[in-house]
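Folded chain entry
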Amino acid sequence: MKLATDHEDYAVQMEQVFKADPDFRQTFRAIGDEAPEGVTNWEVKFRREGRIIHKFEFQRVERPQA
């Protein structure tokens, strides 16, 4: 699952929620210049405006079936 936002408070909330869920593990985190450029028109626009982009990736943890 890929997540991205230009709102710092929302980024913090998303990261906390997913990190607290044992069914997910974080596989990627980048903020600002570290974040690879996106392909959406919104992200291109926001970067031009100087907004800081926060990006995360989480992967669902495989659980053995009972």
